[in-house]
Specification:
Blueprint lengths: L15 H13 L7 H4 L15 E6 L9 E6 H24 L5
Antiparallel strand pairs: 1-2
Length: 104
């Protein structure tokens, strides 16, 4: 179970304002613009308007960290892969804290 299970789309921060941001960003998209998630790592993945269904609004640094978010378009796969990496690390930290494990 994820940390956001049972929450509505709006409660997860993906409501009307998020969808509005997606429409605005898609309208501004030029064929060949880089994926924001990959560009932040120095990798170039071109995005194209004809694949809009595969693009998502990515929040930087990520909603799980709180604070102000910068919204940009990323490939769905890149966005979700980054989210999975953060989620797995947080899950590991919670598990470690719950077990009382400490490393000397």
């Amino acid at each position: 179970m994820g940390w956001q299970d049972g929450l509505t789309t709006s409660q997860r921060g993906l409501g009307a304002s998020h969808q509005r941001a997606r429409r605005v960003l898609l309208a501004k998209l030029q064929d060949g613009d880089p994926c924001a998630r990959c560009a932040s790592k120095g990798i170039y993945h071109a995005m194209f308007t004809r694949y809009a269904r595969l693009l998502e609004v990515d929040d930087f640094p990520g909603r799980v960290f709180g604070g102000p978010q910068t919204k940009a378009l990323s490939w769905r796969r890149c966005n979700r892969q980054a989210g999975a990496i953060v989620g797995n690390k947080l899950r590991g930290l919670r598990r470690k804290a719950a077990s009382g494990y400490t490393r000397w």
